[in-house]
Amino acid sequence: MSKRIYFNAFQMNCVVHQSPGLWTRNDDHMVDYKRLDHWMNFAKLIERGCFDAIFLADVLSVYDVYGANRDAALRNAAQTPVNDPMLLIPAMAAVTEHLGFGFTSSILQHHPFTFARFITTLDHLTQGRVAWNIVTSYLESTGRSYGLKGLPDHDVRYAMADEYCRVCYQLWEDSWADDAVLADKRRGIYTDPSRVRDVVHDGKYYKVNGPHISEPSPQRTPVLFQAGTSPRGTDFAAEHSECVFVIGSSPKVAGEYAHAIKSKAQNFGRRAEDVLCFAYMKVITGSTEAEARAKYEEFYSQVSYEGALALLCGWSGIDLSKYEPDMPVEYIETNAIRTFLHSFTHADPNRMWTMRDIANYVGIGGAGPVLVGAPEQIADQLEEWIAAGVDGFNLAYATLPGSFEDFIDGVVPVLQKRGRMQKEYQPGSLREKLFAGRPARAQLPHPAAKTRRGW
Amino acid sequence: MSKRIYFNAFQMNCVVHQSPGLWTRNDDHMVDYKRLDHWMNFAKLIERGCFDAIFLADVLSVYDVYGANRDAALRNAAQTPVNDPMLLIPAMAAVTEHLGFGFTSSILQHHPFTFARFITTLDHLTQGRVAWNIVTSYLESTGRSYGLKGLPDHDVRYAMADEYCRVCYQLWEDSWADDAVLADKRRGIYTDPSRVRDVVHDGKYYKVNGPHISEPSPQRTPVLFQAGTSPRGTDFAAEHSECVFVIGSSPKVAGEYAHAIKSKAQNFGRRAEDVLCFAYMKVITGSTEAEARAKYEEFYSQVSYEGALALLCGWSGIDLSKYEPDMPVEYIETNAIRTFLHSFTHADPNRMWTMRDIANYVGIGGAGPVLVGAPEQIADQLEEWIAAGVDGFNLAYATLPGSFEDFIDGVVPVLQKRGRMQKEYQPGSLREKLFAGRPARAQLPHPAAKTRRGW
Q1: What one-character DSSP code corresponds to residue A18?
Q2: CB-closest option in A109, A117, A210 to B114
Q3: Within 13 A of B441's CA, how many CA atoms are on the CB side?
Q4: Which end of chain A has fewer CB atoms at under 10 Å, N or C?
């Protein structure tokens, strides 16, 4: 039987995640992002669809590259305002049994001692269903929010991330022995003090001197996600990540990236199958191809030009505000910008693309590609991506809950019938569900496992 | 009609909060503290009892003063292991409608930019039911966990807390105008960019330069709790706190403390009724006095000596491990220690108190007094405390859920019948529920309100 395809629902605690403009539709419910029931209903829907996890993105400041100000982002609610993602998990976990919850947390945000306890608490409350998406932030404004002049240099941020993870691993893996907690009511001993020890870390960026203050959780180290694409970022992913978030404009691009990461992981003594690659994907489907196309056209006409460019400029760091909407991409004089924009034109490289076309492409797809078609057609295309080398998808939406309802009621049964998607969840923690036959805890040669000294 | 009495349920995300030894009873469920349903059931019980809020304590490191090590605390699960309290709130809020949620967060734990978003997120998700207990930490080991040599000096910590609050107030109160969020689907404008501005704070301890990234929540600034008892701590409380947590061994002691705080608040232009004083209290009740006494005796016999002293030494910073359990307090040579321990003997100052008696007193009461009796007797005594000047109680428990069930089924109906306790909740945010007739947001002359500049 073919390997099952993994699915995360890609989300964010804000109004507009990957579809600028569509929040204005009456059938889009993301304006309710401040309500608990909104998130609990969402989690129940995604578990009904047998997805592996909800994957929550995050940013820590407002997109302010387009026009060198934040006006476009604010007007269009483009990933701003944005509330904390971690705080959604306890309520979503309360109404689900198996679904995993991955959330983004930048190493700039918390001291590792604080962060390690958040993870352990969540892993207890969810009974082992937590994943952490390790990010190093990309908006200069995030550094300023924390009182810095801007962000630390890219490679410094990765050096910080590496140290941050190693401190957390020690707190999660090495401070409490497996048999530290006795919970022995008869003898009145909860913890054996001889089985708890200090983490003493005096590093370049972080210092900790004391024991972890939470008892071991089912997974200890959460399932680790990462999405770096730079050489330093992929090195980091190859060593630390168990799931890598890939954005590619075609199966070939994403597949080659997945192969590269898996191959690099082998340099760290890991196997290719130790790393699962999730490709960004948006799907617009309906009962027929015509219905799906009609939805696509309608959504396309509702894209916000300014909202799309606020996001694209924030992601790339390039201010595109000086180009008029009707400016053809190939007339742009700056080579680097023209080349960057051409990376979006692969769907139809022969026609003339204007800035508005680029904005619409980004507006409808978000950070990556969009598939449009009837369920069988979508399933075929998703299988092509898998054949090209990715393991699954981080599925974004056009409208919520509509896009996920369409996918779960239409495409999921097709994939299940083809034996390409799980019909029910496996028992155990998120790590055991993702990596069948493996234990709940990180295993050698993963660096988290390496921090376990003997007792 | 007499003023209603306020009640918080005093809790902590750990096995042993204020009753060392009693976790070993089969009817105590705190060993389930890692489970979401444990907390959701607890919240439903407390809301059934018409309490104002759940008040979650916290510490960030292990109690290690007794015997200069952490063995006693770990063996007895004395507030350790301890998971993060904030992460319990979303799940508890999901199954309640009116109950408030106060949680402790030390200023050493988070950057104010990070913390401000946590609060705003929670205030949205709970629809305005969040309170923050501002603490500055008291265990030297907490400083070490964060890589410091120990804690900053006491007065420095309060200077930090003052600045921390003022940074948070700016993020909560001054960054987004009331009319910033339009959520206008027709015009496609979510936020009016001209109504969002940066917080620029370049202080002694904290720096922030950017806008708050969450839109305004119902209360903006959460209801503020504080529990300082030092001159600097009470100054802080008098200026910032809306609810003050008081620990007194008798109505007189607690009442005088409450009067002092309220009087000090007037120095800051506030009214006495702007500050509510909650006295620590534990209640052991049953259908008759004899039944309550029998429970008390049984609990008393189950107190853990070592667990009680681990807590007491941690709270006081005094290592009492060199005194044998049978050592009479009055034979202790060090004046300061003898005086400190005599503060626990007021219940019966004429008899000879040993170290074991002190441990049992602390073990059964926790950080403060315990009332034992039938519901009518308890109600009478609580009214005495109120008459002495406090506004309500932070009610601790001996066993969970037993102590709260006994109180809610026994004492609450008596107090309600006497018109001293609410029978149903008032509408609105926690601040509106606690301060009838006032708005959801902090008002002048509170320093949070002072940070609002004009638009």
Answers
A1: S
A2: A109
A3: 18
A4: N
Whether residue A401 has a cis bond before it, omega within 30° of 0: yes
Residue B185 vs residues A23, A29, B80, B182, B286: alpha-carbon distances, Å? 8, 12, 50, 9, 58
Interchain pair B210, A71: CB under 8 A: no
Q: Which amino acid is at B44?
A: K
Q: Which two tokens stand for residue A223?
A: 């399932």
DSSP state of A363: H
CATH number of the domain residue B114 falls in: 3.20.20.30
Residue A240 to residue A255: CA distance in whole angstroms: 20
Inter-chain touch B91–A146, beta carbons under 8 Å: no
Both tokens of residue A319? 């201010």
Q: CA of B349, closest CA in chain A: separation in Å? A: 31
Q: What is the pLDDT of residues B5-55, one digit of tens each?
A: 999 999 999 999 999 999 999 999 999 999 999 999 999 999 999 999 999
Report yes or no: A392 and A6 within 8 Å, Cβ to Cβ: yes
Chain A, nearest residue to B199 by Cα: A145
CA separation for the pair B91, B268 (Å, rounded): 37
* Portion 120-149 of B in contact with A at CB < 8 A: 120-122, 124-126, 141, 144-148
Interchain proximity B209–A147, CB inside 8 Å = yes
Beta strands A53-57; A100-106: pairing state: parallel
| Residue B419 per-residue DSSP state | T
With contacts defined as CB-CB under 8 Å, which chain A residues touch B15?
190
Structure tokens at B218: 């119902």
Measured between CA atoms, how close is A114 to chain B, in angstroms?
A: 6
**Token pair of B448 as six digits:** 């949070």
A75 near B CB under 8 A: yes
Q: What is the pTM of this model?
A: 0.97
**Does residue A252 lie in a domain region?**
yes
Q: Of A436, A431, A442, which is closest to residue A127 (Cα–Cα)? A: A431
Strands A181-184 and A189-191 come out as: antiparallel
First to last CA, chain A: 42
CA distance B44 to B97: 9
Nearest to A74 among B24, B40, B191 (CB): B191
B359-408: per-residue pLDDT in tens? 999 999 988 899 999 999 999 999 999 999 999 999 999 999 999 999 99
How far is B57 from B24, CA to CA, in rounded Å? 21
Tell me the pLDDT tens digit for each residue of A74-117. 999 999 999 999 999 999 999 999 999 999 999 999 999 999 99
Instruction: Quote ipTM for the complex.
Output: 0.97
First vs last C-alpha separation in chain B: 42
Q: CA torsion sign, A42 to A61 to B105 to B171?
A: negative
Instruction: Check B144 against A23: CB less than 8 A apart.
Output: no
**Domain count along chain A:** 1
Give CA–CA dist B281/B370, Å, rounded.
6
**Domain-located, residue A132:** yes
Interface check for B91 against chain A (CB to CB < 8 A): the answer is yes
What is the distance, to the nearest Å, from the Cα of residue B130 to the centroid of all Cα atoms in its chain?
13
Point out the residue among A21, A62, A206 whose CB comes nearest to the CB of B147: A206
Q: How many CB pairs below 8 Å do chains A and B form together?
A: 224
Give the C-alpha separation, A146 to A161, whole Å: 17
- Give the dihedral sign, CA B305/B306/B308/B309: positive
Q: Is residue A270 part of a domain?
A: yes
Is A455 among the domain residues?
A: no
Distance CA A391, CA A413 (A): 19
Range of the domain at A69: 6-178+186-450
Q: For residue A429, which residues of chain B lie inside 8 Å, CB to CB?
A: none
Q: In degrees, to the nearest 5, what angle opens at C-alpha B19 toward C-alphas B16 and B21?
A: 80
CA separation for the pair B163, B206 (Å, rounded): 7
Note whether A334 contacts B: Cβ–Cβ < 8 A: no
